[in-house]
Amino acid sequence: MYTFLAGIVLLIIGYFTYGKFIEKMFGVKEDRPTPAYVNGDGVDYIPMSTPKNSLIQLLNIAGTGPVFGPIMGALYGPAAFIWIVVGCIFAGAVHDYLTGMISIRNRGAHLPELASKFLGKVMKHVVNGFAVLLLLLVGTVFVSTPASLLHLLSDGRVALWIFIAFIFVYYILATLLPVDKIIGRLYPYFGALLLISALGVGIGLVVTGAPIPELSFQNFHPEGAAIFPLLFFTISCGALSGFHATQTPIISRTTRREKEGRKIFYGMMIAEGIIAMIWAAAAMSMFSGYNGLNEILAAGGPGAIVSEASTTLLGAIGGTLAVLGVIVLPITSGDTAFRSARMIIADYLKVAQKKFSSRLWIALPLFAVSVVLTQIDFNLLWRYFNWANQSTAVIALFVASMYLYIARKNYFVALIPGTFMLIMVITYILSQPIGFNLPMNISWGGGFVGAAILVVLFFKAAVKARANNIPLEVDVSDWKKAS
Question: What residue intervals traverse the membrane (predicted)?
C-alpha cells in the first residue's frame, strides 16, 4: 500500500516541480495569440475553456491504455509502479507538453508537419504514413474493446456486432462535426464519469486495505518476467505514449493562451498516470498474486479484471458505473483518433476542412479500412499498435529535442527519454515474433548500435539546423496565409 500511495504523491509533486521546470525552460509567451483565434474556422480551430480542454485532452489520450496496459503490466509486479511514475513525470508528460506547445507555436501543426520542419522533408512523408497507420490501428482497437465490454455488460444478450455498429456511427459523427458540437459538449460529462470511477476504485483499495505489494528485491518482477523491453510496451498510456502526439494538436487548436499548456498537456498526463497506478494496484492486489492474475487474464482478458474489481470494490451499481467509465475511455480516444487522421491527411493534401464535403471524402475511406481491420485478430493488432505507438513517441521526442536544440534550450529533457525508448523500440522489433524474432543478445546489440547511429545523425542534423536558423515558430501575421 505504501508504494502505491507514494507513487501517487510523487506524480502530484512531479506536476508542481518538474512540470513547472519544463514550462519555465520552454518559455511561455503570454502575449502571443494562439491558433484558436488566429486560424478560427468554426470546425477545428475554436477557443474553449481550460477545464473543457483539459477534460477533452484527458479523454483523448487515455483510451484503454491507462487501464488495460497497467492491468497486464501488473504481471511484472511493483516494477510497473516505477515505470508509471518515472515514465510519466520525465517522459510522458514532457512528451505531451512539448508536442502541444510546439504545435501551438506552429499554427496547430500535427506531428508529420512538425517532423518535416525539424527533422527534414523526407520525414514528413514517413511520419504521415506512420501516424495515419497508428491512428487506424487505435481507432480499430478502440472499436473492439468497448464493444466487447458492452457485450460483457449485457451478459451476451445484445449481439457484439450491434455494439460495433453503434460505435462506428458515433465515430463518424464525432469525426465530421465541428469539435464543439459533440466532443466539446459530451466530454466534460464523460470526463467526470472517468475520474469518479477511477477514484472510486482507488479509494476502495485504500478503505478495504487491499494487499497491494510493496516494492522490494524479492517481488520486483514475479516469475522473472523480462522487464526490458516488454514492460515499456505493455504499459504505454500512463507512462509514455506516442498516440498522445497525434491528439495534442487537436487541443493546441482550441487552447486560448500558452499559459494554459501546463495544466492541459502536462497535467492531464499526470492524471492519466494516477489512473494507471490505481488499475495496476487493483490487478496486483485482488487476484491471489501473479498466478491468479495470469489465469483470469488468460480466461477473460483485462476486461474481466475491470468487471470483477469494480463490482467487488464498489458493489453492483458502483461497479457498473466504473465499467461504464472504462468503456468511455476507448470510445473517447477512438473518435479523436479518426478525427486526427482526417486532420493529418487534410494538412498533408492541403485541403481546407470548413466544408462538410471536404471532411467527408477524407474520412469515409478511413472508416472503410477500419471495418476491414476489425476482422483481424485483436491480440495481433494490439502488438503492432504497441510498437507503432512507442515508435511515434520516439519521433515526437526527437522533434522536441531538435526544437530545443535550435532554441539553445535544455534539449536533454526530451533527448534522454527519446534515446531510451529508441533503444527499446529497436530491440523490441528485432526480438519479437511480430518483427525479426532474433535472439535477445543480438537484439540488444542491434538496439544500442542502431540508437547510437541515429543519435549521431540527429546531432549532425541539429548543428546544421541551428546554423541555418530554422524558424521555430510561424509568424502570426503569416498564419492565415499558411493555413
Answer: 75-98, 126-152, 158-177, 189-212, 224-243, 264-290, 310-332, 360-381, 387-406, 411-430, 442-463
